[in-house]
Amino acid sequence: MGEGIFKQKNGLLAVDVVGSCGVLTPEQLAGLARLAEKAGAIAFKLTSRQTLVALLPEGRAEGFIEGLATLGLRVSPYGNVVRAVKACPGNEDFCPRALGDALGLGMALQERYLGREVPKDFKIAVAGCPRGCVDPYCADFGVIAAGKDVFDVAVGGMGGSSRPRHGVVIARRIGREKVFALLEHVLARFGELAQPREKLGRAIERLGVEPFLPPAPTLAPEEEDGSLAEFARFLKEHD
User: Fold this and answer.
1) Residues 6 or more apart whose Cβ sits within 8 Å of residue 34
2) Residue 121 CB neighbours (<10 A)
3) Residue 160's pLDDT band (cuts 50, 70, 90)
4) pLDDT at position 229, please?
5) What is the pTM of this model?
6) What's the half-sphere exposure (Cβ side, CA atoms, 13 Å) at 228?
7) pLDDT, tens digit, for every residue of 123-141?
8) Domains in the chain, ordered, with CATH?
9) Angle formed at CA 53 by CA 49 and CA 54, multiple of 5 degrees
10) CA angle, residues 200, 205, 206, in degrees to nearest 5
11) How many other CB atoms sit within 10 Å of the CB of residue 80?
């Protein structure tokens, strides 16, 4: 497993800091500012993966990196691993459109799977509604809230590619725990079936999606609760 620490052309180091799906407490922000100032950091940059890159002199990076653990933060894993999870502000605290707690699910997925080794980098995105602000259909494993504690799941998306593809929806309206079971199965089959450095989406193109599907009970949907109809009414009222 590699780490998100990259030497820049100008001699600075870019250190990729990961928290919980982009959520930082005031104490963490203040602590980061103190570490950055002490290390002589030039700037921070928010990334598309909801991490925070610090630009700092190479000779002063060690103290900055060691200090991250005291704040409950770390350098983001990099390479052929499960990468930092992207989750939208999809819960009742942050977004009026949220159908389910996408942010809480994303944090839990990241806590369990961040850094797990895979044949090729594996990206997870969790959206709180069909608008999909975190591009779930462009992720290796995309989750979209379809109601309270029920989610749709797509696999094999590749947004960052010269040949982009949308993921294939393999489950609709499954419960929260089934999302974990489904991801566990997909990761296991990915490890078994993918060629070295082959993205999940390319493996699906080569083999079809069927070899990556779990037993039928894992895909069984929960009962309808009318949330999507309520979401459609919300959109109509606020367009």
Assistant:
1) none
2) 17
3) confident
4) 54
5) 0.90
6) 12
7) 999 999 999 999 999 999 9
8) 2-78 (3.90.480.10), 86-238 (3.30.413.10)
9) 170
10) 95
11) 17
